[in-house]
């Protein structure tokens, strides 16, 4: 069943040019044959580096050493939060790790993950990628029962829900299964108890989660690129509604009794996931090239060169070039040393920040008709500045092609699609958008083609941010600060 978009109220948008995914999760269970050969903390650090694109605000690692959980987390990138001394001081046999991006509010250590809880039956550490649509309702129930929250993250709501179930059943995996019947929305989880590593995926499989083998041990991660970074062998994607339990070196699979269609977020293939990842059976890099191929079929134009916006627009640009026969060339150079703490200049700071992050190669652009390919347009301000950079470099014409449909609706499942009033496509025709960003022509990938780009995928897709149709019923509001509104931020 598809649920139509209703009129919603949203929280203010912070004005970033690109959308952000919420989180990346990782877990490792070291089998007895590999003790001393695998360091869970160090491997979690390596994996989080590979998943850094999924969250640059905060990160953390929790390690289980003989039933005692030690956690280190803070605001910052992985290499800012951890060093050799910290990792060497975190011995153990099980670990979970997390990288985080939040949609609103100021970064805080309280919202960083893993979330670690000690209760009367033991302790656990939880990491979560996604967003719970009923977090506010669950939180209010817990607060009325005397629960006290320390963060604005819906992951803490999730943790308390699992703990409450744990007090009523005989194992942590049964508690997670029972909790899956109460929580609604998107969640890919890596959970550590004193003896077990558990991974679970929501019944729709909105966010990716896979499992691999490292020597005799098991690892789980949001994306297969993290397994590659460790030299682990990919086993398979965790299925929607599936719960994996790793205990005593053995892997068990359980399924919740919620029957749903498998609808992975299609934007994982368009932008979020790393190109070298394989998500639900489909190569992300190939999906992006397919998007470019369909763009060339749907919006052909006479031009001299195809240019991709680094980094996510490049595979689609290559696909457009191959399909159209128009040569691909590098037209924009990205400054890879610009961090998230880059100090904005005073006057015209936004335009300057774009120019210092992306600069044009005049020799490849001057006097040429350019096809500029990017993955999406959110507000349109950055696109307009990029077009100006290309034309200042001598481009005779700039034709923009976008490898996704226009954003028209908010996302409830872990992507910070802003309020409609901030979306350039809302209430405007493509011709009006073309005039606003200053291009000679503009073409968006059709929704029909978008649903076909992930060749070999074992899933259907959630495209609610484009179509306004959602796999589950969504709330009337998209509020993201749980302190102010009672609705979960990200986990």
From TrEMBL:
This enzyme catalyses: 5-phospho-beta-D-ribosylamine + L-glutamate + diphosphate = 5-phospho-alpha-D-ribose 1-diphosphate + L-glutamine + H2O
Q: List the catalytic residues.
A: 23
The record's cofactor note says: Binds 1 [4Fe-4S] cluster per subunit.
Q: Which cofactor does it need?
A: [4Fe-4S] cluster; Mg(2+)
Q: Which residues bind [4Fe-4S] cluster?
A: 265, 411, 462, 465
> What are its E.C. numbers?
2.4.2.14
Q: In which pathway does it act?
A: Purine metabolism; IMP biosynthesis via de novo pathway; N(1)-(5-phospho-D-ribosyl)glycinamide from 5-phospho-alpha-D-ribose 1-diphosphate: step 1/2
Which gene is transcribed and translated to give this protein?
purF
Q: Where does Mg(2+) bind?
A: 312, 374-375
The record's comment on protein family reads: In the C-terminal section; belongs to the purine/pyrimidine phosphoribosyltransferase family.
Question: PROSITE patterns under this entry?
Answer: GATASE_TYPE_2
Q: What is this protein called?
A: Amidophosphoribosyltransferase
Keywords assigned by UniProt, alphabetized: 4Fe-4S, Glutamine amidotransferase, Glycosyltransferase, Iron, Iron-sulfur, Magnesium, Metal-binding, Purine biosynthesis, Transferase
**Which molecular function terms from Gene Ontology are attached?**
amidophosphoribosyltransferase activity
Entries under Pfam families matching the protein: GATase_6, Pribosyltran
Instruction: Give the species.
Output: Butyricicoccus intestinisimiae
